[in-house]
């Protein structure tokens, strides 16, 4: 096509989102409001514009560990059922407004028990917020399906409990399990009992791997832990060589990931912020897409990265010249990789995503 896609055009496209952290997507006004109601007085700013700028500036740190520090403030205001419900509800509103039709949003229950809530109470509040948000979005003509992943922090020792939580709530909106947090020094194999528990219950899980750490993290996630998807996985580029003539040669790890169609939950903007890549233009997304890996586009943390699905798509379009057919392929990649049943995935692909892209493509 001769006219490059712009943000306004991309906002009309249906989107599927697999990697979005609930505590990384709050509205700054909500953070300030809940802090005032709950007596949390450690915010670095109490004006919306100032707090927004602070989150985005602090997150652009060049390391994953420093990138995670601002989350202490969002987590601090997510300690009551009302706050958790509100944040989850607003998350659905914001995603639906960006034409997201399917989303898996993750959060770590162990971070929200500082005021005495149990894991079950935390999860109940979040799922109720998602459900109410879906109803409100549908009433406005913006149908969206939102499901939940429960996350265990890789530096802690609660992963088995969180895996058990995922199974208790598997028919109530939780579709999978995840581990997250600083990678260096905390390999995924520390949590083998949790992954074994998930496999024994025929359940799905993803693992943050290959973001701040290299190929061993990815290898362990797949070979020893049996991950269904990879959170980020950008360091797989270390197992790929590009010849002077443009031919791509894959190492054995990269080859098996492509052969097995392991989905990559790629989050370009946050990868720049954490220093995993230098820029969007140097992100391995395009290399992997051209080599036919199953790549997907994701937001990671919408507040910290000042982003939406539309903005992530726009940044990739500007860097690599993608058109509607490319964005459709990446969206279908994501929907194929979702943790809901096959017939539900197929219905969204055939009845929502393809028809809406057909209109856009013309």
TrEMBL record:
* Residues where Zn(2+) binds: 19, 21, 208, 300
Reactions catalysed according to its record: adenosine + H2O + H(+) = inosine + NH4(+); 2'-deoxyadenosine + H2O + H(+) = 2'-deoxyinosine + NH4(+)
Q: What is its EC number?
A: 3.5.4.4
Q: Return the GO cellular component terms, semicolon-separated.
A: cytosol
Please list the GO terms describing molecular function: 2'-deoxyadenosine deaminase activity; adenosine deaminase activity; zinc ion binding
Cofactor (UniProt): Zn(2+)
Q: Which residues are recorded as binding substrate?
A: 21, 23, 181
Record key words, sorted: Hydrolase, Metal-binding, Nucleotide metabolism, Zinc
| One of the Pfam families matching this protein, by short name | A_deaminase
Q: Does the keyword Hydrolase apply?
A: yes
Q: Does the keyword Zinc apply?
A: yes
Q: How is the cofactor bound?
A: Binds 1 zinc ion per subunit.
Positions of the site: Important for catalytic activity?
232
Q: Which domain of life is it from?
A: Bacteria
**Which segments constitute the Adenosine deaminase domain?**
14-354
Q: Where is the signal peptide?
A: none
The GO biological-process annotations, alphabetized, read as:
adenosine catabolic process; hypoxanthine salvage; inosine biosynthetic process; nucleotide metabolic process; purine ribonucleoside monophosphate biosynthetic process
Active site at 211
Q: State the protein's purpose.
A: Catalyzes the hydrolytic deamination of adenosine and 2-deoxyadenosine.
Family, per the entry? Belongs to the metallo-dependent hydrolases superfamily. Adenosine and AMP deaminases family. Adenosine deaminase subfamily.
The name under which this protein is listed is: Adenosine deaminase
Q: Which organism is it from?
A: Mycobacterium fragae
The gene it comes from is add
């Amino acid at each position: 096509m001769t006219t490059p896609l712009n943000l306004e055009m991309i906002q009309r496209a249906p989107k599927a989102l697999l990697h979005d952290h609930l505590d990384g997507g709050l509205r700054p006004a909500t953070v300030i409001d809940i802090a005032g109601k709950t007596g949390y007085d450690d915010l670095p700013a109490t004006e919306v514009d100032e707090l927004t700028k602070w989150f985005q500036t602090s997150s652009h740190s060049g390391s994953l560990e420093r990138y995670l520090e601002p989350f202490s403030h969002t987590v601090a205001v997510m300690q009551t059922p009302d706050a958790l419900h509100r944040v989850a509800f607003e998350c659905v509103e914001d995603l639906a407004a960006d034409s997201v039709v399917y989303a898996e949003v993750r959060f770590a229950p162990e971070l929200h028990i500082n005021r005495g809530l149990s894991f079950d109470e935390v999860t109940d509040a979040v799922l109720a917020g998602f459900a109410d948000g879906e109803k409100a979005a549908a009433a406005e003509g913006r149908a969206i399906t939102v499901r939940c992943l429960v996350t265990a922090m890789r530096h802690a020792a609660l992963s088995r409990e969180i895996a058990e939580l995922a199974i208790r709530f598997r028919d109530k909106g939780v579709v999978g399990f995840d581990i997250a947090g600083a990678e260096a020094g905390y390999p995924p194999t520390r949590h083998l009992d949790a992954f074994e528990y998930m496999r024994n219950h025929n359940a799905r899980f993803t693992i943050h791997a290959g973001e701040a750490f290299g190929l061993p993290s990815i290898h362990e996630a797949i070979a020893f832990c049996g991950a269904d998807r990879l959170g980020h996985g950008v360091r797989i580029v270390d197992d790929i060589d590009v010849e002077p003539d443009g031919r791509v040669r894959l190492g054995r790890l990269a080859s098996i990931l492509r052969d097995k169609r392991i989905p990559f939950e790629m989050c370009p903007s946050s990868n720049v912020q954490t220093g995993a890549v230098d820029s969007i233009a140097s992100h391995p997304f395009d290399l992997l897409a051209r080599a036919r890996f199953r790549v997907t586009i994701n937001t990671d943390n919408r507040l910290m990265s000042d982003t939406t699905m539309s903005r992530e798509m726009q940044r990739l379009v500007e860097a690599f010249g993608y058109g509607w057919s490319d964005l459709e392929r990446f969206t279908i990649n994501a929907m194929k990789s979702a943790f809901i049943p096959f017939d539900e995935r197929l219905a969204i692909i055939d009845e929502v995503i393809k028809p809406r892209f057909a209109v856009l493509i013309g």
